[in-house]
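HUMAN: Mind making up another protein with tokenized structure?

ASSISTANT:
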Amino acid sequence: MLRFSCCFLILLLSACTFDELARPEESNCNGVQATYELNIRQVIDETCAYSGCHPEYSDYEGLLPVLRDGSFLSRVITLRADENLGMPPNYAPTDRPVDLSPEQLDLIRCWLSSDYPEN
């Protein structure tokens, strides 16, 4: 019985892994001024707030519900690599971007981390 217990324990411990979760990309927001009116509105207008996509995001008030519930952060930052769930999606119209630039992503990260100021 002792031999069985030892074998079971060794098998159990050898099945464990110590994978680390990928760290989320961080932005250095020192000195970055990101507000909706100053620089985020333009990104939203170009990539989100157009006919057939999210026209309700054409103003700050229309964007607030998805900012508050975390779905904006999830879809734009966390799931951005997913072809269908990430925003902007890979099936965006040909005159619209299917990816945000690194600079746009940094601006959005800084804006979100400062509680998405309007002005």
About this structure: Confidence is low (pLDDT under 50) at residues 18-24. The first helix runs from residue 2 to 14.
